[in-house]
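Hi R.,

Quick one: here's the Transposase IS30-like HTH domain-containing protein sequence you asked about.
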Amino acid sequence: MPRIAKTARREISSIDRERIIGRHLGGQSNKAIAKDVGRSVSTIGRLIKKWQETGKTDNQKGRGRKAKYSQEQQENLLEVCFNNPRYTYYQLSYFMHNTSQYPKVCNSTIKRYLRVFRVQRFIALTTPVLLPRHLPLRLEWANGFNIAQLGLLVFSDEAGFMIDDCGGGRRK
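And here's the predicted structure, written out as tokens:
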């Protein structure tokens, strides 16, 4: 007997389900049904067992992985996303986790939710220069200076700049 090649999982159509149950009621063996339909014997046996126990062959509703966030929590995630456009996925998941009403989720979960809502383009791809926790520290540092000290500071953009006579104050 030739073996049925392993293929990718595919759902059994409702017509095939009815054919399988009809052949079973007609007295055919699971092996013969599997050969005719092109499915494995275990698949046929599982479908017949389900039909004998429940009287139905359709898949049950509500199966599958449960959502990490409720609908309200997903809407709040969108609100946080729009209110903080410079947050990265990591910062969004960190922010949501630190808010006590949300379960801890990984970056890919945040990314998946935002992909479903089609708002990925609003997420920063790189970390901003200052994180939210750095802002109060930066403000405290800046408030520590007085006007006389600010005159001694030199702000630079890391570019070379010649101040002497021969350079004429031009960039290198």
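The radius of gyration is 32 Å.

Cheers,
M.
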